Predict the 3D structure of the following.
Amino acid sequence: MLPIVKGILEGERRSLAKAISIIDNDERDSHRIIGEIFSKTGNAKIVGFTGSGGAGKSSLIGKLVPNFQALGYRVAVIAVDPTSPITGGAILGDRVRMQNAIDDNKVFMRSIASRGALGGVSKSLRNVIRILDAAGYDLVLVESVGAGQLEVEISKIVNLTAVVFTPNTGDNIQAVKAGLTEIGDLYIINKADIEGAMALFNSVLDLIGETERKPVVLKVSAKTGKGIRELATAIDKILRARTSNYKEKERKMLELELKDMVLNRIVQRAISMLNENDKYFLFVDELASKKIDPYQAAEKLAAVILK
Amino acid sequence: MLPIVKGILEGERRSLAKAISIIDNDERDSHRIIGEIFSKTGNAKIVGFTGSGGAGKSSLIGKLVPNFQALGYRVAVIAVDPTSPITGGAILGDRVRMQNAIDDNKVFMRSIASRGALGGVSKSLRNVIRILDAAGYDLVLVESVGAGQLEVEISKIVNLTAVVFTPNTGDNIQAVKAGLTEIGDLYIINKADIEGAMALFNSVLDLIGETERKPVVLKVSAKTGKGIRELATAIDKILRARTSNYKEKERKMLELELKDMVLNRIVQRAISMLNENDKYFLFVDELASKKIDPYQAAEKLAAVILK
């Protein structure tokens, strides 16, 4: 057993932090670490929080953590930071606000970067969760910003997705319609103390009320603390109610993960084969001189690579 | 020659609209249409406009079009609409505003949906541009919303990327840093008549001034029309200055496109092989019972598929 794995299993924070860096940077030891801890995983429940920047997700999570602890959970938080797809530089979000809210040594908190390809985040996130799971954290909260493909990816990894809306960040029916209606198990109207909260609450209720899944819609205020305990209880209740489905859901997740990993290896292999194959550049020449069209070229070149 | 191809080459609008639908929905005739028009393409210049929702891109494009026409261009506009990654339903943007601004039969305008996988948009967009190119449009303006992977994809397809910022949509240094500093050849501060425009202009200038590419930064107001003619002239100038590099850039784009198309075929093939291979589900069983870890399973299964 690697010394770092021993540290992880003992919940030693420095080992955890180091292991997460190794996973997040996809360093060589990733495979061995995951290989050695994998059999110890499968206990953690994972809750995703998503919504626009400024919806107050970090503060909300900060207030939820002690409530989850009161319910008996060992809580860890992972924030997925949006990064520039080119430079890979993470925007430093309002992590500080969350950190301030949680003055507690018992919580483990880390940001990971949503760099590059979408598949990259999923892979990193799945394995970071495994590290925390093996270390004994049984509730992992995953925060991400936005309403795009990334959130859909994350919703496939978590057991429950909470979507956070707030009246003052331009969230309106259009934003609500833009894709977050499908992924949420729970909708949270944050900043319920400010103007427009009730109207937004009603809009979300109307839109979501039509769907068959009938997700819970709740109003809270991270600032005043109103509704936070009820929210923690609601999440706990949903997680408990779903316990019977976990094995099935975990199998589905593993199926998807294995497919992603295999396809990734095949694509890497195909890229090397392409770059080393003279035919690739010959076809590009023929395309540039319009002697062949892209569909024909792709058909022929794929046949060469697949043969 | 397909009758629709004859219509395209004659610039007949109904044929154009129909051909674009066929391409955008990836219908069976896509291959044949592109195959038949491909040798007639390569004349259009393509300019991408990106920026947050509310930055006024549609109005700006609406005002630019007559100026480009005055410079001798036949102009077409493609708007890439953000869609829910799950339902595929497009948000109806402010196309109407653009349509109102351009009261001219000589412009061709179409929305395409940015559905599903990122690669899908690129493929659709490249081929829709080819249709317009073959129909004789020599300037294609592509509008898209956002600062994500999609815009990076689009920047690889266009000859010039213009990034639109505006003081009143929450654009600030952080937004500017979030990934749009790398893709722009031209930065436009729209709504230059409102408060905060000068500060934003200076910020962009500072941030971009540091970069080696030295892109142009301009203030305009689509509302008052101020600076619009100068913007059209600046874009025209950049396009003309780059003419010598087009062949090389087009080759690079074709190289990338061919790679995407070949990899796509290989992935489709690999997915079918996976779904039909019993070993896939056996490995999922072993993963679910923690007898094997994901890296080992992926390694072994990839070897089975690749053999």
